[in-house]
Amino acid sequence: MIDLKNIRITDEFWQAEQELVRTEVIPYQWEALNDRVPGASPSYAIHNFRAAKALRERSHMPGFRAPVFGNVPFQVLPEDPEKADPDKFYGFVFQDTDLYKWIEAVAYSLTRHPDARLQATADEAIRLIADAQAEDGYLDTYYILNGRDKTFTNLKDHHELYCFGHLTEAAAAYHRATGNAELLRVAERFAKYIDQHIGAAEGKKHGYPGHEIAEMALVRLYEETGKEEYLALSRYFIDERGKKPNYFAEAEGQGSPGFERPEEAFSYYQAHKPVREQDEAKGHAVRAMYLYSGMADIARLTGDESLKEACRKLFRSVTREKMYITGGVGSTHIGEAFTFPFDLPNDLAYTESCAAIGLCFFARRMLQMEPKAEYADAMERALYNNVLSGIALDGKSFYYVNPLEVWPEATHRDARKGHVKPVRQKWFGCACCPPNIARMLGSLGAYAYTEDTGTLYVHLYMSSEITGDIGGQAVSLRVTADREDPEKWRIRVQADTKGKEQTIAFRIPGWCKGYTLRGAETAEAAEKDGYLYVRKEWKDGEEAVLELNCPVRFIRADTRVREDSGKIAVTHGPFVYCIEETDNGKDLNLVSIARGTRPTDVTFEKTTIAGRPAEVLLVPGQREPEVTDRGLYFEADSAGAETAPVTLRMIPYFMWANRGENEMQVWIPQR
Ligand code: FUB
Ligand code: ZN
């Protein structure tokens, strides 16, 4: 990962998002972690660490008896925090990760915006975590408080390795941002403990994480410390997964989840077959994205061709058969999972914010493995649409589920749609998404840019400044993404490569219909896999301008996506657009776009939505009249057939649901 210290995002649009994280999300989440938000589900994350610390202190006292694991549920239901037992664990088995993700988000925020008070608060939280860690290095407050006798007996569901993964991601980020190595030491001690108990050697458990993330986190730990054993452990997890006999069935003896066919048993965990034999994205979408990200990391670092090929197939399976136009993945709330190819229901979509974030992780790693614009296209799609939709424009509420069509009444009255919320929520009992959004937005620079020997890749266009050692060379670069002209993105590049030649590779986005490059006439330039490689000595004071044509586009879906037959989606640049009731009236089912309407008929309007600058598209449309007086079914004659012309006001999808509860729709019939 490129060092975020070298990158400053100056882009107005993205800076606003990063500022929301700094000024709203991080402080709010700290209150939530401490159970101080009236009316919000208590987190108990800090409570649990305090209880674990107290237990460790008591363990030195005479007569101490360690807790013994009874029949503890996956979620210990929260009570009134006032009445909580100070020695008891509360929340989900993975509750610790909420604090780790917060620390990671803080690390990125401190990189951009030093803040001594915030750093002191995070340092204190880290000290608490270190004090809660067991003397043997183990760290998961659910087991510490409920009974260590069952440590690593339910890798499938109980998330100990998932907690380790988030701890490690936070530790690496915090160390990189602040130089404070305390959490890194904690993560390394836990990594060593895991290594002693899980692995190929006789006497160790031959298991792997039920919820992946440790794979990519161990790679990060390896990159932060240079210690090969972490890379080896990550590789072990990847190589062991899905081998026969299946570890989860054999060692944990808990049978296969009921909703799967026998040959698919454990596909929920991507453990139905060895990873190199997997060619279809299956199971829990977040888990899948995290696994594939780890696979891509290992494939890149080891050059393992079979693993690279599996990554390519899985990426294609996700993005060519199972991804929504918004970059959302996971079509069903049952198991928060993928279903079958081209099954992409709009109003039942699960499309968890974390899963879209996971797709960004996977795509970024594919780009590091082999830069191809199709990976960046998917990453951009997910980021600009599904990920941003996960957070309100004021940063104060969040979506877990990001549907493409909402009829509020149905979400209230139909249990099948109970997971779809027409308004964002302040917090969640299972609060995985908000802090994940915070850490994603905080580390944007690492998605916009990657480096390889001698080359700086520009994947996403956002104004930024880059200085330091990039791709092994001293560089100073300023990118200005000028989006004033709605039909053209102008990317101005000023660079100083200090007397040496440097390649800068610019992505030509999938949405761009033609481009020009001016001001780099002295350069060697060649296009490959969707990137324009420009090699030259970049001199201070010179400017190159890349103009990307950015027309409005009407998009249709593969006809196998039955939900979208006869419909179009409207996009502009990376943004997917939607209609909302607030702008277009009730009963969005009655509006359509007439056949023959062209994208060039669309006009633009600059406005604000919830205080944020917004570009509205005005699309010529039509509306059918209501027919409510001819019985439930009636003869298909002229009634209801005549339509009235209307102008559809379309807003960027990520801005929906910021003006109260209302209907929303991305795909619009074309009649
Ligand atoms: O299991 C941990 C997290 O909680 C998952 O990634 C999310 O899907 C939610 O279930
Ligand atoms: Zn989530």
Poorly predicted runs: none
Helix content: 25-40%
- Look at the helices and sheets and give the structural class: alpha+beta
CA gyration radius, whole angstroms: 25 Å
What spatial form do the alpha-carbon principal axes imply? Answer: globular
The biggest sheet, with number of strands, parallel, antiparallel or mixed sense and barrel status, is:
10 strands, antiparallel
Bound molecules: beta-L-arabinofuranose, zinc ion
Number of strands: 23
How many distinct helices?
18
- Overall mean pLDDT stands at 95
Distance between the termini: 48 Å
As a percent range, the share of strand residues is 15-25%
Report the oligomer. single chain
Give an account of the 3D structure.
The chain is 35% helix and 18% strand. The protein has 18 helices and 23 strands. The strands form 4 sheets. Strands 4, 15, 16, 17, 18, 19, 20, 21, 22 and 23 form a 10-stranded antiparallel β-sheet that branches. Strands 1-7-8-9-14-11 form a 6-stranded antiparallel β-sheet, with no helix packed on it. Strand 16 (567-572) and strand 17 form a beta hairpin. Helix 6 (160-178) runs antiparallel to helix 7, helix 11 (285-302) packs parallel to helix 13 (353-369) and helix 12 (305-321) crosses helix 13. It is globular and about 85 Å long. It starts with 6 loop residues before the first strand and ends with a strand. The mean pLDDT is 95. The structure holds beta-L-arabinofuranose (FUB) and zinc ion. Residues 352-354, 400, 432-433, 436 line the site of zinc ion.
